[in-house]
């Protein structure tokens, strides 16, 4: 299964991805980590697309996405989860990441990008502040049950 954890910086994607991995197993790939698969970017992207396509029906790959262009790498059948948080929380988390300092250009970038993923189509929407990761994992597990999604037991 390919599980795409999508959202802005500091929304809670990595925390959710770790929870999913601990509950469901799988490999976590973040952003452009796939570039390590080959010397050229195009070859790496091609290999990564093939890996994701195979994982749709095989082992779990949890792909953490914070850049819109990476959405194009997702295969048909990927489970898409939007992780969101309010802007103040994102700024607070980013400030902590930067050891208490949030430069004005970075703050402006966070403000500009806030909500940039909101208009997409997602299987799940997860609150990166108050969301119940265990409940979400249970819903994802239900997707893997035989007969789910084929009209048989829907």
Description:
- With 154 residues, this protein is α/β, with parallel strands linked by helices.
- It has one domain (2-131): Rossmann fold, CATH 3.40.50.
- Helix content is 38%, strand content 16%.
- It has five helices and five strands, in the order βαβαββααβα.
- It has a five-stranded parallel β-sheet with strand order 2-3-1-4-5.
- β2, α2 and β3 (61-65) form a beta-alpha-beta unit.
- α1 (13-24) crosses α5.
- It is globular.
- Residues 149-154 have low confidence and may be disordered.
Summarize the model shown.
The protein is an alpha/beta fold and 154 residues long. The protein is built from five helices and five strands; from the N terminus they run βαβαββααβα. A five-stranded parallel sheet has the order 2-3-1-4-5.
Describe the secondary-structure layout:
Blueprint: E1 2-7, H1 13-24, E2 27-30, H2 41-55, E3 61-65, E4 79-84, H3 87-97, H4 104-113, E5 124-127, H5 133-143
Parallel strand pairs: 1-3, 1-4, 2-3, 4-5
**Rounded Rg:** 16 Å
- Supply the number of structural domains: 1
Q: Could you please say which CATH topology applies here?
A: Rossmann fold
CATH architecture: 3-Layer(aba) Sandwich
- Name the CATH superfamily classification: P-loop containing nucleotide triphosphate hydrolases
Number of helices: 5
Order of helices and strands: EHEHEEHHEH
Give the mean pLDDT.
Answer: 92
Strand content: 15-25%
CATH top-level class? Alpha Beta
Strand order of the largest sheet: 2-3-1-4-5
Helical content stands at 25-40%
